[in-house]
UniProtKB/TrEMBL annotation:
Positive regulator of amino acid starvation-induced autophagy. InterPro entries: SCOC. It is a peripheral membrane protein. This is Short coiled-coil protein. Belongs to the SCOC family. It is found in: Cytoplasm, Cytosol; Golgi apparatus membrane; Golgi apparatus, trans-Golgi network. Keywords: Coiled coil, Cytoplasm, Golgi apparatus, Membrane. The keyword Cytoplasm applies.
Amino acid sequence: MTCDMENQAELEEKTRLINQVLELQHTLEDLSARVDAVKEENLKLKSENQVLGQYIENLMSASSVFQTTDTKSKRK
């Protein structure tokens, strides 16, 4: 009888470990998918940032407020 109880306990432990491994695999898959999504979003935001930076640079170069002034010519 003790042999059956030991086998039962061992089987329960194996089942518990298998379930834990499966749960960890699912968690890893979820985290991996999240990392991929964040990488994709990061690339999108970098691209948008470059576009906005270029747009701001173009606005600044087109505006007289941001142009460099020659102070010597204004003094004369």
